[in-house]
Design goal:
The structure holds 3 protein chains of 3 kinds. Helices cover about 30% and strands about 20% of the residues of chain A. By secondary structure, chain A is α/β, with parallel strands linked by helices. The longest helix of chain A has 18 residues. Chain A is globular. Chain A starts with about 25 loop residues before the first helix and ends with a helix. By secondary structure, chain B is mainly beta. In chain B, the strands form 2 sheets. Chain B has a 4-stranded antiparallel beta sheet with strand order 3-4-5-6, with no helix packed on it. Chain B starts with a strand and ends in a 10-residue tail after the last strand. Chains in contact: A-B, A-C, B-C. Strand 17 of chain A pairs antiparallel with strand 32 of chain C, so a sheet runs across the interface.
């Protein structure tokens, strides 16, 4: 037990010393010298004021901070997280990315996200292990096949590589699938989207945090927001419509800030309540599970909307499963046995040969569900209070583009066109976004 | 599997269907777009006690019950009462 | 000549590892029975009662696997279900826990993570460059050139550990069971067994679940006194019928309200059975898991925990080495040394309590040859045994909401929360002699039984139809009156002065953890995610506490400040087959289905229903129906029987149109919207009597419309008197359509006047058809022809169907399927909810504005529909229109987009399309933006093959007979 306790503190890096580049050559140098790498992000004191406070240290919050600093030169930014970075949905999702959505708005948005994911490893100088392995959404009914065709046609018009394939092609892409047509839910075809794939979700979190840190953004973990400070609003304590934000009260003291951004996914309603902004959101756990590793046999991502299941195999050999959100609102991420039973039943319906594989671990994350399966983004009736919420089960896919667009919205004080359809005002006018058909179990 | 106290006794949640937050339907003849869409879309979504509507698929009965959405404790199951045009 | 591969070659056997000649006191093998098996192709023999591990070691095999990253040779470390090195392939089953699975005759066993073979593994070359392959190294490289990453990825994927799935493995048979024990006990060591006995004696029904193959816990590998104590307890358990004993079974999860999952691996005829138990009280008594020690060389074959040695020697008669060093901090380690000496293995004891520490296991990769102490002494040995303390498997407590806290004096975690219906006993609760453990277990069993009785009384009292409860159950549960177990002081021993492996399954060392913490991954969760420590098959059972200890050390903090990761279910992995159980996904068929099958129908799955898509030629079926008469089985149509004086009020609430004046014998079409104005369902409803109506819904909407109706009745209008009864399957429904349908039905029905004057379009009658009384007959026409829909009491459906065919033979009657019906409905322009409408289509978009009666007081969705009918709203809402491609031979696929000329602007889409056999041209329904909805508007349809073809918006939705003359004859 002789390691000096200062080992961590001693490696603190001063800002401005220049970002240490990650590379194979660097690994060799460090390996030979035995030197340690510097901290991935700094550990600094919390200040009493910032230009922008972002609540939620997940992909959305960190990407917003990164693009505020990178694209707009706004660096006096603090990202606060009540636990650790990536502790919410960012570290609990099944890390699937794709852009084959149903509506033109959705397609344009997620396509931009996929573009950013494609270059992320070089942009952030951190390998996020983007695996462009293709994404198949199975159809088991003629109605589902019709929706697949609809998506494919919209996708093609937007220049997205997306087409409907027949069961024989499905079987060629994923030989473990039962394409005999004899099962209870026969596979009639699939929407195939070659650019879709998986990514290492934690690496995206760390990459954005590291990139933002290099540009001066501060990350503060274990810093819980207890209240949002407002003035001039119609509600109690100056909160609510007509008011403006002045700062946040945290478990480590008050911070003044003219701009506060809510990027808290499953906790979005609780944070927005603190500013007096009511949201069209309910919180549901989304459960996931992973098996023990086996030698790689599943080369693509497979999704079945009818069977409420999606599955991919990691490079480590584990099958990662997800399903639809839980059947009732909940802030409890304990998970349920029913989920694993239904999941296993449906997975074996698709892949009867894997009954001897074992489920190793189940977990859950909290999703902020909206009535139209589309997010709520942009400014609100409280000046300076921005929301990037309502991401439901697909927030991870949208992280990069959301950060980019939210940063632009904050920096320019104007809503970028790409997120205009997602403004909260649509719930007052009834002009909802039509993503429900594609996104209900759309991983 | 939650064991939910219904007005008829404890039941597995798989016998039930979750309806949602207990809401008050505005009077359709006098409502405004704001009030109606508040009823349609906005939710309290607290992490704590909430009065909810559930449907018992076995007894074919809608009932209300309070649930703590953070701990999944239940209390006070009751049969629903008509609230047409009245605000909670 | 030096073979470079020789460096990577490893001997898999060791001379000191062998089966003892003399039986041991606690031996569980039957030396008189041989069991044959193969290991990597070699034919070997073990004994009845052997685990795979003990059989392999009994054959002198010490190296059984290779590590994940560096492919280092590995041998058994803990020799129990948690052994991180013992996952083997057995036949088509991957990842078998070989130190737990019993050997059976003919097993084909092989190593998993080797290339090309166990003794020669080329990937062990990774070990030579391990200093560059620190935890998370892959995040720092392979970024450029980006184009090469897919190739790197493929190489990395070949390092995936684990066995191989044979994709032709049969699905297998699995079963499930529900149980309702008063007291469920996880773990059958002395405390668990005593708890079971005491709870049973208190009158409780008890389920006792033990992961191992026999009851006894740690007493099984203990001394003679412990074996005797075990025998006595086992007898007490087995002689009580109130105790159901499950061995080779594990409580894998505790979910809300004590819903517990049990994996039973010994049920007859199934590989694994999932038992779901609603336990009134759960007793957690899993014992303790022995923790490995972190030091240089700690993953060499020949390094073992004391428990591993005791199990191998005492239960299986296996000698694990020739010369041993036992590094011990507790009596368990001392006992292991005693056991070794008893079988003649010389032992050098290194006593941690006296301040002695081991620093390194030396020798080749193939196994330990010596041990170096921190004080510099070296000892020759081929076996290094460590006894450095325990990890409390608090998994089930975690799942119950407990967050265990670290106790420095005992160097382990304890549960912290008082949970009424989850009690702990045995090692997880404290230390003691066998007598003390039994005493605590008994007290726990009694308390569990008493609490279960009160909980059960409350459940019965809350159930209104249960037998009356004599007395009001007490408001509070019996208090916890147990004397707590003691806690034996234990030195904190996690890592020596050297670095070694922390997570064996993941090949993560303490050096990796320190490096990661230094880089800023310095909370336990970030560290876990960055290094993957604790994420392998043992899920932290062996490595969580050491991980926390190394992190605490790196941060200069205490373990209690660092905390641990949350242990998630399941406690042991469960097969997907067991979780899935049998396939319970029923399909529904009508009473006519046997006829359909016998007569060449092509089946189609429509929701839950299997129905005929066609009988060979749907176009011919259409033409036959339009020219003469056809019959179709429409049983899946949703049907609700509505009775009571207030049915019209309910109908007015559900549908957008009016219902108060529907006369008896009348039928009306209605459109149902949700509260947001979006079309939800449609159908016709008939008034059969003064207070009796029959409603039809779409097939897929049958269940939801029923619940929707009940919702309005129960929550908004409990004063209305209406009974709703679903009768979808009470009737077999047959539509008789075509100009000759009156003739055909008339031949089978003589108590209803079918003349157009007496029974007009949109009317209903009740009568006798083919001798079957109480048939409901509607004159409606989805097909656009004169037609009668017959709802026949289901038991007589097939009879009526066959009579219709027989009586109509000379009329050319022909059955038609779903496809012909779809063609005919499209010819008539009837939209299908959910196909021609979508999740945002409000009622005005369907062209049925005239059915929206805003002068009614209320109906579902009324405010939204009022606003949707405003000129501004109508000017932006899409419209459902009939469309015909200008080229009549082109049938655009459903979902083809309607675009602006040569642009990519989307202006609508084709929602339904068919070639019309009646018209000899293609016909469509579609949704378009309102500016393109006017009849005669020219559209551009983008076909799937990329062609853009012109089409025209039609004046009427109906392509055929828009006036409906054929219906009304």
């Amino acid at each position: 037990m002789a390691t000096p306790s200062s080992i961590v503190a001693g490696a603190r890096r001063k800002l401005g010393a220049g970002p240490p580049r990650y590379s194979a050559a660097g690994l060799v140098r460090k390996g030979l010298s035995g030197d340690s790498w510097p901290r991935v992000w700094r550990d600094v004191e919390l200040k009493s004021s910032y230009d922008v406070v972002i609540i939620g240290g997940g992909v959305h919050g960190l990407a917003t901070a990164y693009y505020l600093a990178t694209n707009h030169g706004i660096t006096d930014v603090a990202v606060l997280d009540k636990a650790y970075l990536g502790s919410g949905g960012s570290g609990r999702n099944t890390a699937i990315v794709r852009s084959n959505y149903l509506t033109p708005e959705g397609v344009a948005f997620y396509d931009r996200s996929l573009t950013l994911y494609n270059t992320m490893a070089t942009d952030l100088n951190l390998n996020v292990m983007f695996s462009e392995r293709g994404h198949m959404t199975l159809a088991h009914t003629d109605g589902a096949l019709r929706t697949m065709n609809w998506r494919a046609e919209v996708n093609k018009l937007q220049g997205i590589d997306s087409s409907v394939i027949d069961p024989t092609e499905v079987g060629k892409l994923a030989p473990s699938l039962d394409v005999s047509g004899d099962s209870r839910y026969p596979i009639l075809g699939a929407l195939y989207h070659p650019p879709g794939g998986t990514i290492r979700h934690d690496a995206v979190v760390w990459g954005y945090a590291r990139g933002a840190d290099h540009r001066g953004v501060e990350m503060h973990q274990k810093t819980e927001v207890l209240d949002i400070l407002c003035e001039g609003g119609s509600g109690p304590d100056g909160k609510g419509p007509g008011g403006r934000v002045t700062g946040v009260r945290t478990s480590r003291g008050d911070i003044s800030a003219p701009i506060v951004v809510n990027c808290t996914a499953g906790w979005a309603s609780l944070i927005s309540d603190m500013a007096g902004v009511k949201l069209p959101i309910h919180t549901r756990p989304l459960q996931a599970a992973v098996t023990e590793p086996v030698k790689v046999f599943l080369p693509t991502v497979v999704v079945s909307g009818s069977l409420h299941v999606y599955v991919s195999q990691t490079d480590r050999g584990e099958l990662v499963f997800g399903a639809s959100v839980d059947p009732f609102n909940n802030y409890n991420v304990g998970g349920s046995l029913e989920f694993t039973e239904e999941l296993a039943g449906h997975v074996l319906e698709l892949m009867p040969g894997i009954s001897k594989m074992r489920l190793l671990r189940q977990w859950a994350g909290l999703c902020d569900m909206t009535p139209d399966y589309s997010p709520v983004m942009g400014d609100t009736d409280v000046d300076g209070f921005y929301v990037d919420v309502g991401w439901g089960t697909y927030g991870f896919k949208a992280g990069p583009v959301s950060g980019e667009a939210m940063a632009e919205a904050i920096a320019t004080r104007a809503m970028p066109k790409i997120i205009a359809p997602f403004h909260i005002s649509r719930f007052a006018t009834g002009e909802l976004v039509g993503e429900k058909g594609a996104a209900a179990v759309g991983h | 599997m939650l064991l939910v106290p219904t007005p008829f006794g404890p039941r597995n949640a798989s016998d039930l269907r979750y309806v949602g937050e207990a809401t008050s339907r505005p009077d359709p003849s006098t409502t405004s777009p704001e009030a109606w869409r508040d009823y349609l879309y906005l939710e309290h979504n607290p992490a704590g006690w909430l009065r909810e509507t559930w449907y018992d698929r076995v007894n074919r009965v809608y009932f209300q019950v309070e649930r703590n959405t953070a701990t999944n404790e239940f209390r006070n199951p009751t049969m629903p009462v008509a609230k047409h045009g009245k605000k909670a | 000549m030096l073979n470079p591969l020789g460096l990577l070659r490893t001997a898999t056997t060791a001379p000191g590892v062998r089966r003892l000649d003399t039986p041991q006191p606690g031996e569980v093998i039957d030396r008189d029975t041989s069991v044959r098996f193969t290991f990597n192709g070699a034919r070997l023999t073990g004994h009845e009662g052997d685990t795979i591990a003990s059989a392999l070691m009994g054959n002198g095999i010490r190296v059984v696997s290779r590590s994940m990253k560096y492919h280092r040779p590995r041998g058994y470390l803990t020799a129990d279900i948690w052994d991180p090195n013992g996952a083997l392939q057995v036949g088509d089953e991957p990842n078998v826990r070989s130190a737990h699975r019993l050997l059976t005759d003919g097993m084909a066993i092989s190593t998993q993570n080797v290339w090309p073979s166990l003794d020669l593994d080329v990937k062990a070359a990774n070990g030579l460059v391990s200093r560059f392959l620190t935890a998370g190294f892959y995040y720092k490289t392979f970024m450029k050139p980006a184009a090469l990453w897919p190739y790197y990825e493929k190489v990395l994927a070949t390092f995936a550990p684990g066995g191989t799935v044979d994709l032709d493995t049969p699905h297998g048979e699995f079963d499930k069971r529900y149980a309702h024990p008063d007291v469920l006990i996880a773990g059958a060591g002395p405390a668990g067994m005593a708890a079971a006995v005491a709870a049973a004696d208190e009158g409780a029904s008890v389920m006792l679940v033990e992961t191992e193959h026999e009851l006894g816990g740690h007493l099984r590998w203990g001394d003679e006194a412990e074996l005797a104590a075990a025998a006595e307890l086992i007898h007490a358990v087995r002689s009580r019928p109130e105790i159901e004993v499950l061995t080779d079974a594990t409580v894998t999860g505790r979910y809300e309200d004590n819903w517990c999952a049990i994996s039973q691996r010994t049920h007859t005829h199934v590989a694994e059975r999932l038992i779901k138990a609603r336990a009134k009280v759960l007793v957690v008594a899993p014992g303790l898991i022995e923790r490995p020690y972190v030091f240089a060389g700690n993953d060499k074959p020949g390094v073992m925990t004391a428990g591993a040695v005791r199990r191998l020697v005492n239960m299986y008669g296996v000698q694990p080495g020739d010369r041993a060093v036992v590094f011990t901090a507790n009596t368990h380690g001392d006992a292991a040394a005693d056991d070794l000496e008893r079988i003649g293995v010389p032992v050098q004891r290194v006593d941690a309590r006296a301040g002695e520490r081991i620093a390194e296991a030396t020798g080749p990769d193939a196994g330990v040859a010596g041990v170096t102490l921190v004080d510099g002494r070296t000892i020759e040995a081929d076996l290094l045994v460590t006894a450095v303390g325990w990890t409390a498997p608090t998994s089930l407590l975690n799942m119950a909401g407990d967050r265990p806290v670290y106790d420095r004096a005992t160097a382990r975690f304890f549960g912290s929360a008082e949970i009424d219906n989850v009690l702990t006993t045995g090692g997880i609760a404290g230390d003691g002699t066998v007598t003390e453990l039994v005493g605590h277990g008994s007290a726990t069993g009694r308390l569990a039984a008493r609490r279960a009785a009160v909980i059960g009384a409350h459940l019965r009292a809350a159930t209104v139809w249960a037998a009356p409860v004599d007395t009001t159950p007490p408001a509070t549960l019996p208090a916890d009156d147990r004397s707590p177990l003691g806690r034996d002081a234990h030195p904190e021993l996690f890592r020596s002065t050297t670095h070694g492996i922390v997570d064996y399954s993941e090949d993560v060392g303490s050096k990796d953890l320190v490096a990661a913490a230094t880089e800023g991954y310095d909370s336990i969760e970030l560290l876990k995610r960055y290094t993957t420590a604790t994420m392998g098959p043992a899920q932290g059972k062996l490595e969580t506490v050491n991980t926390a200890a190394v992190l605490a050390e790196a941060r200069g903090e205490r373990i209690e400040d660092v905390g641990t990761t949350v242990w998630r279910p399941p406690f042991v992995p469960v097969s997907l087959g067991a979780l899935a159980g049998r396939v319970f996904e029923p399909t529904r068929v009508s009473s006519i289905q046997p006829w359909h099958e016998a007569n060449g129908a092509t089946p189609i799955l429509a929701g839950q229903w299997i129905r005929p898509e066609h009988y060979g030629d749907p176009a011919a079926e259409v033409l036959a129906t339009r020219a003469g008469v056809g019959i179709i089985d429409v049983t899946p149509l949703g049907k609700l029987d509505l009775r009571g004086p207030d049915v019209p009020k309910l109908l007015e609430q559900l549908y957008t149109n009016k219902w108060q004046k529907l006369p008896v014998g009348g039928v009306r079409y209605g459109l149902m919207c949700a509260e947001d104005g979006v079309v939800m369902d449609d159908g016709v409803t008939a008034r059969l009597g003064d207070e009796h109506y029959l409603m039809t819904t779409t097939s897929s909407g049958a269940a939801s419309v029923w619940e929707w109706a009940e919702m309005w009745l129960q929550t908004e209008h409990p004063d209305w008197q209406v009974h709703v009864t679903p009768v979808t399957t009470a009737y077999t429904s047959i539509n008789v359509a075509g100009p000759k349908s009156r003739e055909l039905v008339g031949r089978l029905c003589d108590d209803v006047d079918l003349s157009p004057e007496a029974f007009a379009y949109m009317q209903v009658r009740t009568g006798t058809v083919a001798g079957v009384a109480d048939c409901v007959m509607w004159r409606i026409g989805f097909t656009g022809e004169l037609s009668y829909e017959l709802h026949v009491p289901a038991g007589h459906g097939l009879h009526v169907w066959e009579r219709l065919l027989a009586e109509g033979a000379d009329l050319g009657v022909r059955p038609f399927g779903l496809e012909a019906q779809r063609i005919m409905r499209l010819e008539k322009g009837h939209f299908i909810v959910g196909q021609d409408t979508d999740g945002l289509t409000k009622a005005p978009s369907t062209g049925l504005e005239s059915l929206i009666k805003l002068d009614k007081d209320d109906f579902a969705g009324k405010p939204e529909l009022a606003w949707a009918l405003s000129p501004e709203a109508l000017a932006s809402a899409p419209r459902v229109v009939a469309i015909q491609p200008d080229d009549p031979t082109i049938v655009p696929d459903e979902a083809c987009q309607i675009v602006g000329g040569e642009t990519t602007e989307i202006l609508g889409r084709i929602t339904s399309s068919r070639m019309s056999p009646t018209l000899g041209r293609s016909i469509c329904l579609g949704q378009v933006v309102p500016t393109l909805a006017a009849p005669g508007t020219k559209l551009t349809v983008l076909l799937v093959d990329g062609r853009r073809v012109p089409a025209t918006v039609m004046e009427h939705h109906a392509h055929y007979d828009p006036e409906g003359a054929r219906l009304r004859v």
